[in-house]
Amino acid sequence: MRTKKARNITVGLPPFGTKRNKEGYLCPLDDGAWLLPDGTWKAGKKGDETPVIGAVWRGYYECARRILELYVSGYGLARISKVMSEEGWAFRTRHGLPSPLETDDVRRVARNWIEYGGTVIGQQAKNRPAYAIEPNSIPIDPERAVFDVELLRRVGQIATERSYRQPDRGRNLPDRVYPLAGLVYCAKCDQLALQQNNPKLRSKLSGKGKSGTKLGSYRHRPGLECGCNHKQVYSPDLEEDFLRLCQILTVDEKSLTIMQNHALAILSAEHADEQAMIEQKATAIAKIERRIVAARSLFEDRDLEREEYLRRKEKLERDLAYWQNYTTETEQLNAQLTMCVDALTKIGHLWEGSNDENRRGIAHNLFEEIVYDLDMQRIVSFRLKEWADKFLIVRGTLYETRNERYEYTPDRNRTCASASGGPRSIP
């Protein structure tokens, strides 16, 4: 590696839009992506036949050059990402697949201006601060540079002008814990992930804005353009929608009894031998208890050695614990339904009297994910944890039997649609 760097040969993955020639130096990359009429990409090489009518070629090398040109024209990283997304450019993952451009991708391209110039200074681009580099002192090789030398010099100058050493601002304020951070996903990003069959395109909303006891907002991943116009939601609004969702899912004791009876009817039809298992469990427990008593009697009558008695006793107690803890599927479902209803019923009271850290634990213990539409400002789908997932299936029986409908008009002039037994739109 030291030998290669001494010869101005990069190591590791080549910078975006480039590849290595036979001598090991960087040269333009022929790979790219076809922008299809439906807005998705298909990987290909320059000169390939057009996959469908109306597809537009977007090469990775041309994409990197376009990013540098926008950078020197005065655009910021987030603005460049937005413009590139509107023009249909794609970034290349380490696996060679096209993906939407993000702010971090633009930053990677801009920071590699030295490598694009055919020079290696012995430090990774991500680890060198721009304010510590004098652009005019970098020996760019015009014969090995993959972009225009003046363009690269200008990129280095702008990067140095924009960067600065972070001053010491004294005591850091404590960051606020956002209860739903890492749990809420963007609905538009979910649609893109489904269209392109790429789960990595899903984007979580993260809490940001204020510190300490002050309220902030949940914000979209910066620099990722998915089509939504609004990039954030005020944290009390989203948490209010979350509590409303929990209230809609809550049932009373009478409804819980109906759900348990319905679950028992379904499982009885599917598992006709479950009653036999219940009888087998009772018989096994009684037999093991009699064997424990018999072993104790033999030991007291000195017909059994102490070591043998302890061995038998340990084995019988393990078998007894197994059968005592054994539960049928009906018993497990009833326990899960009761636990889920209890959690949903208490979540409102616990939420009001808890701090943000405890609220985070409450939400993440019950929900697997929540999908939120930032433009419509509403929850569009959700998924409970695996242990509570069957609750939604049985919950739907209430609407089939009694045709229940929950209507709610919040303070923000929005109307709540009817709740359902499965994961669907809950405003």
Outline the fold blueprint.
Layout: H1 2-6, E1 18-20, E2 26-28, E3 31-35, E4 41-45, E5 56-59, H2 60-72, H3 77-86, E6 90-92, E7 98-100, H4 103-111, H5 113-116, H6 149-162, E8 184-186, H7 187-196, E9 206-208, E10 217-219, E11 232-234, H8 235-249, H9 253-270, H10 274-300, H11 306-325, H12 329-352, H13 356-366, E12 367-373, E13 378-384, H14 389-402
Parallel strand pairs: 8-12
Antiparallel strand pairs: 1-2, 3-4, 3-5, 6-7, 9-10, 10-11, 12-13
Explained architecture:
This protein has 3 domains: 161 residues, no CATH class; 199 residues, no CATH class; 56 residues. The chain is 45% helix and 12% strand. It contains 14 helices and 13 strands. A 3-stranded antiparallel beta sheet has the order 4-3-5. A 3-stranded mixed beta sheet has the order 8-12-13. Strands 9-10-11 form a 3-stranded antiparallel beta sheet. Strand 1 and strand 2 form a beta hairpin. Helix 9 crosses helix 14. The protein is elongated and about 100 Å long. The chain starts with a helix and ends in a 25-residue tail after the last helix.
**Shape designation:** elongated
Structural class: alpha+beta
Integer count of domains: 3
The separation of the N and C termini measures 57 Å
Taking all residues together, what is the mean pLDDT? 78
- Strand percentage lies at 5-15%
The biggest beta sheet reads:
3 strands, antiparallel
The unreliable regions are: 402-427
Number of strands: 13
**Helix share, percent:** 40-55%
Order of SSEs, N→C?
HEEEEEHHEEHHHEHEEEHHHHHHEEH
Task: Output the number of helix runs.
Answer: 14
Strand order of the largest sheet: 4-3-5
The radius of gyration over CA amounts to 31 Å
